[in-house]
Amino acid sequence: MTTSHGDLLQLKNLGAASVNILRAIGVNSYEDLKAMGPVNAYCRIKARGINVSKVMLYALQGALTDTHWNDLAPDLKAKLVEEAENETALT
Predict the structure, then answer these.
(1) Is the pTM of this model over 0.70?
(2) Rounded Cα distance, 57 and 78, in Å
(3) Greatest CA separation found in the chain?
(4) Is the Cβ–Cβ distance between 22 and 14 less than 8 Å?
(5) Does residue 78 register a pLDDT over 80?
(6) Is 7 exposed, middle or buried (0-12, 13-18, 19+ CB in 10 A)?
(7) Residue 49: phi, psi to the nearest 5?
(8) Of 10, 25, 37, 63, which has the fewest CB atoms closer than 10 Å, so is most exposed?
(9) How far is the CA of 40 from the CAs of 6, 62, in angstroms?
(10) Which CATH number applies to 5-90: 3.40.50.720, 1.10.275.10, 1.10.150.20, 1.10.132.60?
(11) Residue 26's Cα: distance from chain center in Å?
């Protein structure tokens, strides 16, 4: 199921630029992002040569949990980064 661009914009941490990036990797809804997961989505973005920081990874996680990215627990941030580094190393 595909939702409109505006639905992704309703998620916390996501602005127009982030939504456009997500759409470029096939994420068109909350459900798409949830199914793909924040780490996989972040790695796909990086694999496309799009220059994003770790904040994008945190923002994706926060979008799924309705949490501002800066309010994520430090140990969760570290776990996300570790998972992303491991996934990147496998490709």
Answers:
(1) yes
(2) 11
(3) 34
(4) yes
(5) yes
(6) middle
(7) 80, 15
(8) 10
(9) 22, 15
(10) 1.10.150.20
(11) 12
